[in-house]
Amino acid sequence: MPTAPHAAAPRGRTPSPRQRGRRWGEHGLAWAFLLPSLVVFALFIGYPLGRTLYLSAHANDLFGAPSKYVGLKHYTDLLSSADFADTLLTTALFTLLTVVPGVLGALVLVLLLENRIRGVRLLRSAFALPFAFSVASASVVFAVFYNPASGVLNGLLSQVGLGPIGWLTDSRYALVSVAATTVWMNLGYNVLVLSAGIGSIPTEIVEAARLDGASGLRLARSITVPMLGPNLFFLTVVSTVHSLQSFGQIHILTKGGPDSSTKTLVYSVYEKAFAYGSSDFGRASAQAVVLLLVVLACTAVQFGVLERKVHYA
């Protein structure tokens, strides 16, 4: 039986110089294709991460330049700081208030839009519209809504005899108000992803369920939602990472106030490094490393728990 002209040398036999040269050529070609991606990764991921770790282990002068090696002192100071504990708690609450309503709200809307009603295409476009807004423009719009003197929300409350509420100036409502803005901003993307997921469900499965008498909530619970498991898992992971990294709406609406009630971990990094003339890059970098660890931990837990449930559903 004829052998292939480029067959590898049998096991136990030394490759010929021609085979070794061809193997090195293949490896070189593979590295040549990988090189652009490796360069981009090193410049935009590797170097910033390494620089952050370096700064977190050093104190700095008034201009932010590293001046003295302090090891893990910044991390131990964070762990013993009550303010940092409050910041972590605020970050966790903000993430919970944005991820759960954002994903579940989009799921409810998509299931309602599956009903055969007039103008359903117009409604889908309307619910996907927030995806077209930037963080800055959406935050400015909601700042107008939340205005204590002339805002729409307090105007509606006055119509039913209720007093005005300081949506962004009262620590009891500020975090919820910023979270509601974030949910609205993410709603369009979530609706688009889940609508695409519903569109990919085989019609044969849905028709077979309808023939068995499934409809309405039973059809959604037994067929639609389980089939949307991968999409829901994807949105949960992406929404969690996005919420942990949220900055723009917090900066525009509350600047971390009032009384630090909306100061998340990302905003705390900004305050330490840049706000009010500060240049404490050492402590800011330590907080940034903690944020990275929190994101990695949340992602690992979600992949370990939710992905397994989706896989075995």
Automatic annotation (TrEMBL):
Biological process according to GO? transmembrane transport
Sequence segments annotated as region (Disordered)? 1-22
Which family does the UniProt entry place this protein in?
Belongs to the binding-protein-dependent transport system permease family.
Q: Does the keyword Transport apply?
A: yes
Species this protein is from: Streptomyces rubellomurinus (strain ATCC 31215)
Q: How does it sit in the membrane?
A: Multi-pass membrane protein
Domain ABC transmembrane type-1, which positions? 84-302
What is the protein's given name?
Glycerol-3-phosphate ABC transporter permease
